[in-house]
Recover the amino acids of this structure.
């Protein structure tokens, strides 16, 4: 019996953690046939389909996008006057003026205001399209995500979403590998790997720091799940440069767990002298890699080295993330959520509501403005996929999301190009305030262009 050139395998597991500095069943986008069944298990119902709007998006340039300024004071007042739940607000209040990225946060104490500035586009028209841009089809930042992120930053400042195998099952999984690996042949390998997936079974999805039924929780879990499916090779990325980790595993040897997680990738935050203008730069999202070993108790620990195929997969995923976001909305959603989380943490850390005398009560008080409940996955099924490689056995996949706000916000540099704050539009008719969002000019000479 030949026991060489065993097929490689990847198995699902995950962990997500969001860290913020301490203070100093509604509509879900489901990507490409992803659904959550009656038992709370995340599943794929059909092969990934690329919506027509995403196909158009890849060929359009965003340089021509409008730059929009959003007044948080005016937006919050409009929401407070309307009351109720976020999803019951008028459609124009449910997105942040069409923003799909946050590039600037401005403190305007003379107006008792805090401003968010970034590229934006009008919402698309049609059923289920109001939260997507009419030009690129990119998901727009939603008010409910902004509110949930602000509340999280003002409380514990810690948000976690983890998808993990049961330690006892992981111990049995590791023991099965050790006890049976010498007997595995090329003919029996696929069945052996399927047995490994059965041993791991369902993995638990755990949420803390935000409501377990929040949209943010759903986005994080589904983005991680989609990344895992791309890594294992059961879902094509749609980007030629992003191949599965399994496809890159030809030179790997040994049986270990592979862990990937999303983390922020920002340049130092630019801040002016009086700390009233903040500017965010950088790609926003990166995928990191770490190889792990399983101990006798079923607990995982970092290995001394990470295999080359894992590093290459993470590097390719990071370098071509923007192209991937053009094709799969869930990754565009994750990109925007990083900005939402970082900007919310910045506002809380810098005490901008206190400095502007702009308390934003409806945004911070869950009783004043409620957020809708979403169906959030509770479990993920383990899966195995094999591919014949040269004398290689690759076992395991652990992924997740980790946003360390403190790491991003602790890195600063001088803001060299400040913005002249234009007068906001005046009130009209019987209204007590003008519009909460309006177009502004791009910065004439930005220090650097966001990637």
């Amino acid at each position: 019996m030949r026991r060489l050139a065993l097929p490689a395998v990847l198995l699902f597991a995950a962990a997500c953690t969001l860290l913020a500095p301490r203070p100093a069943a509604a509509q879900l986008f489901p990507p490409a046939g992803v659904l959550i069944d009656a038992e709370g298990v995340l599943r794929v119902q059909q092969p990934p389909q690329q919506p027509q709007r995403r196909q158009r998006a890849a060929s359009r340039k965003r340089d021509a996008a409008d730059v929009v300024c959003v007044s948080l004071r005016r937006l919050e007042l409009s929401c407070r006057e309307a009351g109720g739940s976020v999803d019951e607000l008028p459609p124009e209040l449910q997105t942040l003026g069409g923003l799909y990225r946050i590039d600037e946060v401005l403190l305007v104490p003379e107006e008792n205001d805090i401003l968010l500035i970034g590229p934006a586009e009008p919402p698309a028209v049609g059923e289920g399209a109001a939260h997507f841009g009419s030009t690129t089809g990119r998901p727009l930042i939603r008010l409910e995500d902004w509110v949930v992120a602000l509340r999280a930053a003002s409380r514990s400042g810690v948000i976690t979403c983890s998808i993990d195998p049961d330690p006892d099952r992981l111990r049995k999984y590791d023991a099965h590998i050790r006890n049976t690996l010498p007997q595995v042949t090329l003919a029996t390998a696929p069945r052996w790997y399927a047995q490994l997936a059965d041993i791991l079974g369902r993995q638990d999805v755990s949420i803390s720091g935000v409501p377990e039924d929040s949209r943010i929780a759903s986005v994080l879990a589904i983005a991680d799940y989609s990344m895992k499916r791309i890594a294992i090779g059961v879902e094509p990325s749609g980007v030629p440069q992003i191949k599965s980790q399994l496809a890159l595993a030809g030179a790997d040897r040994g049986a270990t767990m592979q862990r990937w997680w999303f983390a922020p990738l920002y340049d130092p935050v630019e801040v002016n002298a009086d700390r009233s203008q903040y500017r965010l730069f950088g790609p926003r999202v990166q995928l990191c890699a770490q190889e792990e070993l399983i101990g006798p108790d079923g607990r995982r620990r970092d290995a001394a080295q990470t295999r080359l195929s894992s590093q290459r997969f993470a590097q390719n995923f990071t370098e071509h993330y923007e192209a991937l976001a053009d094709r799969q909305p869930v990754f565009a959603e994750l990109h925007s959520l990083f900005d939402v989380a970082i900007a919310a943490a910045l506002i809380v850390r810098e005490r901008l509501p206190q400095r502007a005398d702009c308390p934003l009560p409806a945004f911070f008080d869950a009783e004043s403005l409620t957020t809708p409940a979403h169906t959030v996955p509770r479990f993920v099924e383990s899966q195995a996929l094999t591919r014949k490689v040269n004398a290689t056995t690759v076992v395991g996949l652990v992924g997740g999301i980790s946003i360390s706000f403190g790491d991003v916000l602790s890195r600063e540099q001088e803001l060299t190009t400040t913005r002249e704050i234009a007068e906001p539009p005046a009130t009209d008719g019987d209204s007590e305030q003008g519009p909460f969002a309006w177009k502004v000019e791009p910065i004439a000479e930005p220090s650097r262009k966001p990637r």
Observations:
- The radius of gyration is 23 Å.
- The chain has twelve helices and 19 strands.
- The chain has one domain: 7-51+64-440.
